[in-house]
Amino acid sequence: MRRLMAMALPLLLAMPAVAQEQGSDDTEIASGMASYYGRELAGNRTASGEAFDPDDFTCAHRTLPFGTKLRVTNLANGQSVVVRVNDRGPWGRGRVIDISQAAAKEIGMHRSGTAKVSVALLED
After folding, report:
1. Which of 39, 58, 49 is nearest to 97 (CA)?
2. CA-CA distance, 36 to 47, in Å (whole number)?
3. How far apart are CA 65 and CA 35, in angstroms?
4. CA spacing 20 to 30 A to 75: which of 4, 32, 97, 104?
5. Is 90 strand, coil or helix?
6. Residues near 27 by Cβ (< 8 Å), separated by ≥ 6?
């Protein structure tokens, strides 16, 4: 048991603080590739009927109800952001979620355009 703790402790200490702070009310529902949609779609109607604003923290998910809040965590750097589902998608092959440009910038994926993420459902 001591050997296991000695191996695990450095890993726990190396975890980013953001990942350690993830609330116990979060339920992970998916992990995989995320992409973002940006300013070129500003003003277009989303599936929920509202106009897309790249500066809002919103996302597209295939099945979750509109208004659902999710925590999206970039697995490469541990940064996370809370987004609200307001659109359907992503339609790109192998993607689990599309997030707005503001959300992408918040978790450090705005330059690459994609990132491996975990998606957690926030309990109200």
Report:
1. 58
2. 16
3. 20
4. 4
5. coil
6. 120, 121, 123
In the block, residue with structure tokens 């500066």: 55
Of residues 38, 37, 22, the one with CA closest to residue 122: 22
| Cβ atoms 81, 92 nearer than 8 A | no
Q: How far apart are CA 58 and CA 84, in angstroms?
A: 5
pLDDT at residue number 16 = 42
**How many Å apart are CA 37 and CA 98, to the nearest integer?**
7
User: What does the block give as tokens for 116?
Assistant: 């491996």
DSSP classification of residue 46: P
CA distances to 9, 57, 101, 120 from 109, rounded to whole Å, are 29, 14, 9, 18
Mean pLDDT, the chain, rounded, equals: 84
Q: What is the DSSP letter of 76?
A: T
Torsion sign (Cα): 23, 26, 31, 33 = negative
Give me the helices (H) in the chain, please.
2-14, 17-20, 101-106
